[in-house]
Amino acid sequence: MKLLAALLLFVSVVVGGCGRPSLETPSEPAIEPNVPLIAQGITAMAGSVASADGTRIGFSKYGSGPPVIVCHGTHTVADDWAAFAKELGKRYTVYVYDRRGRGQSPDEGKAYTSDSEIDDLAAMVKLAGPDAAILGHSFGGGVSLAYALRDGFKGRLVLYEPGHSVLQAVDRGHLPELQALIDRKKFDRALEFFLENIPQMPEGEIAKLKSSPLWPGMVELNKLAPREMEFLRQLTWTPEQLAKLRCRTWMLLGSLSLPPDGQESRVAALVDRIPGMTLYPLPGQGHVAYLANPPLLARVVERCMVDP
Fold it and tell me: What's the rounded Cα separation, in Å, for the pair 282 and 169?
């Protein structure tokens, strides 16, 4: 824990000199956190691609430039990433796809397997082209890393607080109780239970979410959480397995996302185990910088795209 905090401070100083990343380019000043930019003239183009089992995977495409694919987390949909995609779309072509079972990618009647989730990302990479980079967030970070290992991905892989079970089962043994609540149609309570016991979100933060417009959509998406936690339970990579990665890797960590005292960080576990991984902090941010500060997140991702 102390090592990770020290590493975050070191990276902040090396990258920015003032406790936050200075992502300055010769032609424009660095973006201050929490100062939004207006992304004018960038609109989404809808499309879809067939995955290996025939499921149509819908996506939104923004901007122009080198391709970047966003693989999102459990309680989100592609539209939640629109503000970020418009920011990054000023210099890149951004593909944000709805993972199967939500939004533009319904999967009724199709069996859900670990390979099907990875196959969906593989289909997006094939569509975007051989130079595509991947940004994987939360559950999507676990999917992205699993894809890179399975298919020998050679592009740029940016992981933002990815889910996995390297240290312990990601559900902390609570999956049966979560499934039981969903089976009994106690959907609001199921989401509360998930947040309390899996990410271990503080009670006050859960209360804020419950009073926000995000809550109803999260309740609906939480019905998919058991199958996705089962996927993450399988991600128990050893250092020897992770050493086989063929891609350049980055880790993004919000400065507000450090684990409770006495608990080892899932982020630190991967940084320790993946050779050559670069860690960048997201100052003043937690797990949802794509909503809280899209300009800052876009600039940090841009930095990953141009790093040697």
Answer: 26
The type of residue at 154 is K
Instruction: Order across the sheet with 56-62: list the strands.
Output: 45-50, 56-62, 93-97, 67-71, 133-137, 156-160, 248-254, 278-282
User: What SS3 string covers 83-102?
Assistant: HHHHHHCCCCEEEEECCCCE
Residue 96 CA to residue 89 CA, distance in Å, equals 11
Cα angle for residues 213, 58, 183 (degrees, 5° grid): 55
Q: Which class for 191: exposed (0-12), middle (13-18), buried (19 or more C-beta within 10 A)?
A: buried
Q: Helices (DSSP H) in the chain: which residue ranges?
A: 2-16, 82-88, 114-128, 139-151, 175-183, 187-197, 203-210, 215-221, 225-233, 239-242, 266-273, 289-292, 294-306
Compute mean pLDDT per 10 residues along the chain, 308 residues long, and list them: 37 30 31 35 91 97 98 97 97 98 92 96 97 97 98 98 96 97 98 94 90 96 97 97 97 88 83 96 95 97 97
Instruction: Give residue for tokens 């459990």.
Output: 74
Beta-bridge partner residues of 70: 96, 135
- Residue 41 CB partners (closer than 8 Å, separation 6+): none
The CA-CA-CA angle for residues 63, 51, 101, to 5°, reads 85
Going by DSSP bridges, is the β-strand pair 56-62/45-50 parallel, antiparallel, or unpaired?
A: antiparallel
On whether the CB atoms of residues 273 and 242 are closer than 8 A, the answer is yes
Q: Domains in the chain, start-ordered, CATH in brackets? A: 2-23+37-170+235-306 (3.40.50.1820), 171-234 (no CATH)
Dihedral over Cα of 112, 44, 69, 281: its sign: negative
Q: Is the dihedral of CA 167, 173, 176, 180 positive or negative?
A: negative
Beta-carbon contacts of 28 under 8 Å, excluding residues fewer than 6 positions away, are none
DSSP 236-303: ---HHHHTT--SEEEEEEETT-PPPTT---HHHHHHHHSTT-EEEEETT--S-HHHH-HHHHHHHHHH
